[in-house]
Amino acid sequence: MPPSPLMGGGRWFIDDVSHSIAVKHNNPETARKEIDGFKGFAKHVLNSKPFELDMSGHGYHWWQQMLSIDQLDTLKKVNSPLLIIQGGRDTSVSPQKIDEMMQRLEELEKNNIEYRRYDAFDHGLKNSDGKSLRKEVVGDMNMWLKSKIGDPEKHKIH
Q: For residue 158, what pLDDT band results from cuts at 50, 70 and 90?
C-alpha cells in the first residue's frame, strides 16, 4: 500500500462527538445533558436492528458503522506508512483522545505511523485569527510523502 496522510480523530467516534458537543456549550450541565442524549442515541443504534433514520443527513448504517469502528484496532493493522494530522484547537474531534490513541500506538511500537499535531490550528486548519494554513499543512504532507516514496522522477517510465 502507498503511504497515506489522514486527518485525526480519537479511537471512538462517540468521544469525538461528545467533545464537539462539550466545546459548543458554555454551560457544563447543558453539555452533559446533550452528551447523555447522544450516548442514548448511540446505544440505541448499536443495539437495534436497522431502522429508518435521518440524523445530520446520515442513516442507520452510517451511524452504526461510525459508532462501531475502533480506530486503534484499525491503525494497529496498518503496515504502510501513515501520517496523521491533528489540530490542537479542534472543536470537531478531540485532540486529547487522539493524543491518547497515538501514545497507545507508540507503546505498541507502531513505527510506521507518524503524528503531526498543529497546536494553533482548528479542524479546518485555520489559526485563531481564522486564517487558513492548509497550504502549509499540505506542504508538510508533500514533504512527508516525498520522504516515503523518494523522487517521483525516478519512478517514471521513459
A: very low
Helix (H) or strand (E) holding 82: strand 82-87
Whole-model pTM? 0.76
**What are the cell numbers at 150?**
523518494
DSSP state letters, 61-106: HHHHHHHH--HHHHHHH--S-EEEEEETT-SSS-HHHHHHHHHHHH
In angstroms, the CA 11 to CA 100 distance is 9
Q: How many residues does the chain have?
A: 158
Kindly tell me if the per-residue pLDDT of 54 is higher than 90. Answer: yes
Residues 6+ apart with CB under 8 A from 69: 12, 13
